[in-house]
Amino acid sequence: MRRFKALYLILLLSLIASLLSSCSRDPNVRKQKYFQSGQSYFVKGMYREAAIEFSNAIQIDSSYAEAHHQLAETYLKLQDGQHAAQELVRTVELQAQNQSARMELANLLIVGGDFEQAREQTDLLMKEHPEDAGVHAIVSSLLAGQGNLAGAIQEMQKAIVLDPKRWESHLTLALLQARNNEPDAAEANFKEVIELNPTAVQAYSLLGGFYQSRGRLSEAEQQFDRAIEVGPGSPEPRAALVHLYLVEGKKDRAEYLAKQAKHDFPNDPVGYRMPGDLYFTSGDLDKALAEYASLIREHQSDLHLKKDYIELLLQKGQFEEAGRLDAEILKSNPSDNDALVYRSQMQISSGRTKDAIATLETVIKNDPDNSEVHYVLGVGFQKLGNLERAQSEWRAALHLRPDLLDPVRSLAGLAMERGDMEVLDQEASEMIRLEPASPEGYALRALSNVNRKRFPAAEVDVRKAIEVSPQSSFGYVQLGNLKYQEKEFEAAGKAYQSALDRNPDSKDALRGLMNTFVAEKRVDQAISAANTQIAKSPGNSGFYDLLGTALFYPKKDLSGAATAFQKSAELDKNSSEPLLKLAQVQAAMGSTDEAIATCRGGLANHPDEPGFYILLGDLYQDGRDWSGATEAYQKALAIRPDNPMASNDLASVMLQSGGNLDVALSLAQTARRGMPRSPRVADTLGWIYYQKGAYHSAVDSLQEALRLAQEASSPDNPRLHYHLGMAYAKSGQVILARQQLQQALKLNPNSGDAENAKKQLAELKS
Question: What is the DSSP code string of 649-689?
Answer without folding.
Answer: HHHHHHHHHT--HHHHHHHHHHHHHH-TT-HHHHHHHHHHH
